[in-house]
Description:
By secondary structure, the chain is of the alpha/beta class. 18% of the residues lie in helices and 34% in strands. Strands 1, 2, 7, 10, 11, 12, 19, 20, 21 and 22 form a ten-stranded mixed sheet that branches. The chain has a six-stranded mixed sheet with strand order 13-14-15-16-18-17, covered by helices on one side.
Amino acid sequence: xxxxxxxxxxxxxxxxxxxxxxxxxxxxxxxxxxxxxxxxxxxxxxxxxxxxxxxxxxxxxxxxxxxxxxxxxxxxxxxxxxxxxxxxxxxxxxxxxxxxxxxxxxxxxxxxxxxxxxxxxxxxxxxxxxxxxxxxxxxxxxxxxxxxxxxxxxxxxxxxxxxxxxxxxxxxxxxxxxxxxxxxxxxxxxxxxxxxxxxxxxxxxxxxxxxxxxxxxxxxxxxxxxxxxxxxxxxxxxxxxxxxxxxxxxxxxxxxxxxxxxxxxxxxxxxxxxxxxxxxxxxxxxxxxxxxxxxxxxxxxxxxxxxxxxxxxxxxxxxxxxxxxxxxxxxxxxxxxxxxxxxxxxxxxxxxxxxxxxxxxxxxxxxxxxxxx
Length: 373
Ligand SMILES: [Fe+2]
């Protein structure tokens, strides 16, 4: 990693996440700050109903996507808090840091890098993305990027990866994994991770790409002993089924300027996971319905997944197509071990001229290429 080139109050550079029609900009910090983003003459604060937040290790500011795409730069503004009080809170002067931003333009090729299952291994994941020869236009973090959500520091490790790779200058997409649901801070992800009104499933549009982020929740049934009665993922998936149907009914993906449609989901729900004597083989009926309604309604070009710690492309009709997928499923992440010193493989996806190329690339520059469209 390069020498630090961000303010000492920051843990790393900002990360700019695409969620529906806005960017959610996250800045992890080391001290108590008040923070906002300026784009042109407009300001977008990290606030709670008009009160600026300072007692937080992670600031979040939401800005309209169109505004930042046009301005192509944003300024992170902050004040250090000396003492917060009911009256006459003491703060230091405003500090401003401007970041260039490269939106994904319509009509141009898109180079994506996909990381999942880094399980809190920051360096290996960053190295894999940076060893990839193509300049990245979009970073996708597809779940289990942190080992769990047992502490806020663990969650902030996600932003160390995205901040170090993107330097705050390109968009990211976030999808939650099952490990993110574990630990006492997991019910605070609505505050500490990108989402739409608290929901971890949503759509995004970046250049010629339209995407739908889905969230399978946990990988075993809700009554699994290890969850200790804390999980209600079946009900969560039923709510999500309604969202999928509403998205299909709205038909935003039918815009004729969209060239690529992608479903991003940590768990490849299109296949049965036979490990663990069947305890991972859940929700066959519901997941088959998702495959059917997404296949008929959205007609995606690909699914992008992680979770099973292998790099493979499953085509419709392959032995691992267990629920009727209608397009390739890319399972693209391979942490060899949980040791930081060991290798890590992610996926480079190139969308160019209606062609999709997949490359599995690792942290020392090895790659394996597959064309899927
Ligand atoms: Fe997982």
